[in-house]
Specification:
Blueprint: H1 6-9, H2 29-39, H3 45-65, E1 70-71, H4 83-86, E2 90-95, E3 101-105, E4 108-112, E5 116-124, H5 131-140, E6 146-147, H6 155-161, E7 171-172
Parallel strand pairs: 1-6
Antiparallel strand pairs: 2-5, 3-4, 5-7
Length: 173
C-alpha cells in the first residue's frame, strides 16, 4: 500500500478533477412532460424555458450535493447532445431521414428515424452556440463549482455523414 503524498492528498479545486462526468443526465419526469406539452402546443416557449430552468437548477444542486466540483446542465435544453449543436452551424440544415433503426428490449421493438442533415454551403459560425445555456448554467453554479457544457468535435459533421457528405446533398446516419 502506498502512502499518499501531499500532492495526491490535496483536494483539487480547479480542473482536472479526480472524478468528473460528461454532460448527459436523465431528464426528470416534469421536464419530459413539459417537452411533450410543448410539442403538442399545450405550453409556449416561455413555459418550456421555465421548466428547463427549474430542472437545471435542481440538477446543479444534485451535482453539488454529491460532491462534484464540475457541473453540467444535463443537456436539458437539447433534443440531442450533438445534433442541436450541428444544426446551429452555418451551412447545415435538417433533412428528411429515411433510414430506419430498430432496437429490441424487454418491452419489444423500438423503431425510429435518426436525425439527418444536409450540408448546403460552407460551414461556419455566425453566433455563439449554446452561449445563453452556458451563461444560465454559470449563474446556477456556486461554491467553486466549474460549469461545463458538452459540445461535439468538428469531426462529428463528417461522422454523421461519412463519405456521402461530399458526394450527395443529403447526409444521414
Amino acid at each position: 500500500m502506498s502512502v499518499p503524498t501531499a500532492q495526491s492528498a490535496r483536494q483539487l479545486t480547479e480542473p482536472p478533477f479526480r472524478a468528473d462526468h460528461v454532460g448527459s443526465l436523465l431528464r426528470p419526469p416534469e421536464l419530459l412532460k413539459a417537452r411533450d406539452d410543448h410539442a403538442a402546443g399545450r405550453i409556449d416557449d416561455e413555459a418550456l424555458r421555465e421548466a428547463e430552468d427549474a430542472a437545471i437548477r435542481d440538477v446543479v444542486k444534485l451535482q453539488r450535493d454529491v460532491g462534484l466540483r464540475s457541473v453540467t446542465d444535463g443537456e436539458f435544453r437539447r433534443a440531442s447532445w450533438h445534433m442541436d449543436f450541428i444544426y446551429s452551424l452555418d451551412g447545415i440544415t435538417t433533412a428528411p431521414g429515411d433510414l430506419k433503426v430498430q432496437f429490441h428490449n424487454e418491452q419489444g421493438d423500438i423503431e425510429f428515424t435518426p436525425a439527418a442533415m444536409k450540408v448546403d454551403s460552407k460551414l461556419g459560425i455566425k453566433e455563439t452556440i449554446f452561449g445563453d445555456a452556458f451563461e444560465f448554467l454559470k449563474s446556477c453554479a456556486s461554491d467553486g463549482q466549474t460549469p461545463k457544457l458538452t459540445i461535439p468535435s468538428p469531426s462529428m459533421v463528417h461522422y454523421r455523414g461519412g463519405a456521402a457528405a461530399g458526394e450527395t446533398d443529403r447526409v444521414e446516419c
